Amino acid sequence: MNNLVSKTIVVQLQAGAADRFPVLAHFSYEADDPFAVTVVFSHDGRVLARWKLDREMLGEGLSRSVGVGDVRFRPVANGPWQELCMEFYGSPHPDGGRHHAVVFVWAPGVAAFLRQTREIVAPGEERVHVDDFLAEVIAGG
């Protein structure tokens, strides 16, 4: 049985009021961490950012606005093109603002990736190994 799903999608990054520009988003999912999807954004071989996202929230973001903290998702229709808008808030600026990046990703690509994750671990079938988690927390990991 395959315990890993990965997919690379060209996404559009918009930082501030600037135009969008393409970067790669490497989505990955492992059965050992059943609630999380890891996304690594890269450009010209350099990692720009790495985020661990809630799988259920990512799926919900395809149909409605979700999130109130550092990560927010919402669907966007641009003519026939369906996108998922992913907003990421980072470290504060000295002036009190926060770093903010917006990523637009092709929604059917995300939906296909999530379908593959559900073939590995169906929603509601996630299991967390509490003893392993506590040992990691106690060890400072």
Question: Which short descriptors sum up this protein?
Answer:
141 residues, alpha+beta, seven-stranded antiparallel β-sheet, 48% strand
Write the layout of secondary structure elements.
Elements lengths: L3 E12 L5 E10 L5 E8 L2 E9 H6 L10 E8 L2 E12 L5 E9 H14 L9 H10 L2
Antiparallel strand pairs: 1-2, 1-7, 2-3, 3-4, 5-6, 6-7
What's a quick, concise take on this entry?
By secondary structure, this protein is an alpha+beta fold. It contains three helices and seven strands; from the N terminus they run ββββαβββαα.
Task: Walk me through the structure.
This protein is an alpha+beta fold. Helices cover 21% and strands 48% of the residues. It has 3 helices and 7 strands; from the N terminus they run E-E-E-E-H-E-E-E-H-H. Strands 4-3-2-1-7-6-5 form a 7-stranded antiparallel beta sheet. The mean pLDDT is 87.
The whole-number mean of residue pLDDT values reads 87
Q: What is the CA–CA distance across the termini?
A: 28 Å
Low-confidence stretches: none
Count helical runs: 3
Question: What order do the helices and strands follow?
Answer: EEEEHEEEHH
Gross morphology is globular
Q: In terms of structural class, how would the helical and strand content be classed?
A: alpha+beta
Strand segment tally: 7
Largest sheet: 7 strands, antiparallel
Strand content: over 45%
Rg, alpha carbons: 16 Å
